[in-house]
Write a structure and sequence with these properties.
- The complex is a heterodimer of chains A (146) and B (90).
- With 146 residues, chain A is mainly β.
- Chain A is globular and about 40 Å long.
- Chain A has a single domain, classed as BH3618-like, CATH 2.30.290.
- In chain B, strands 1-2-3 form a three-stranded antiparallel beta sheet, with no helix packed on it.
- Chain B is elongated.
- The chains are: A mainly beta (146), B alpha+beta (90).
- Chains A and B meet through strand 5, strand 6, helix 2, strand 7 and strand 11 of A and helix 1 and strand 4 of B.
């Protein structure tokens, strides 16, 4: 199928590659179908593109690429809607945002994907995890010293 | 908002399959027990709202702003949250 996106123009997606988020995402509850795209210039980055809203896409990364000791405890009630009993067969992604010129990762609410069933859900992990885990080494193009 | 008074061990039913029970009252803190179907997410309101805001903010990110991400690293250790898959409620 062909979808329109504001960031990547018109793209073709295999229907079998689509991901179904039964509850959407918090704040984006109406967006239930998504495509996971690879970033053209960056193998560390993916884009979760809504297939119903061309302007909605979330930058996502595999958390352990940036946080090697990232471990999550996710209540079983959060995994059951995905028909999963544990995270062994899941793909775990975290959402990237920008705050004060730094890129941050939402480690508190990872996205869990049941790869085989092509379903996904954003879950709330237990424990004191940051929602804005800062990545460093980044200089925002807007931050020029006087 | 519907306001009800409940004492310890008393419950409220929401719909036909959600039960909220007052498990303990200590000072100004109330411990609530929630019985709901597995597919109904239950969260502290401020946590859910914070995630909503964070997602909406993240949804405005453009590829031009993420170019440097391959060269970045995490700032400091993350509190170890334990093993995955542990049950959070009975």
């Amino acid at each position: 199928m062909r979808i329109n996106t504001t960031r990547f123009g018109r793209i073709d997606i295999e229907t079998g590659d689509l991901l179904h988020f039964a509850s959407g995402l918090p704040g984006l509850e109406d967006c239930q179908r998504w495509a996971l795209l690879a970033d053209a210039g960056n193998d560390a980055l993916g884009w979760l593109q809504s297939t119903s809203r061309s302007d909605v896409a979330l930058a996502v990364v595999s958390p352990r690429r940036f946080v090697p000791d990232y471990q999550v405890r996710i209540p079983r009630s959060e995994l059951t809607p995905l028909a999963m009993r544990n995270l062994k067969d899941a793909q775990l992604l975290v959402v990237v945002a920008q705050h004060n010129g730094s890129l941050t990762l939402n480690l508190k609410a990872p996205i869990v994907i049941n790869v085989e069933a092509r379903t996904g859900r954003q879950v709330v992990a237990s424990g004191d995890l940051p929602m804005r885990y800062e990545l460093v080494g980044h200089r925002s193009p807007l931050k020029k010293s006087a | 908002m519907l306001v009800l008074s409940r004492q310890r061990d008393e419950s409220i039913m929401i719909g036909d399959n959600i039960v909220v029970t007052i498990v303990d009252i200590r000072g100004d803190k109330v411990r609530l027990g929630i019985n709901a179907p597995a597919e109904v997410p239950v969260h502290r309101q401020e946590v859910y709202e914070a995630i909503q805001r964070e997602n909406l903010r993240a949804s405005r990110l453009e590829p031009g702003e993420t170019q440097e991400i391959g060269k970045l690293a995490g700032r400091g250790p993350v509190p170890n949250a334990g093993n995955a898959g542990e049950p959070g409620r009975s």
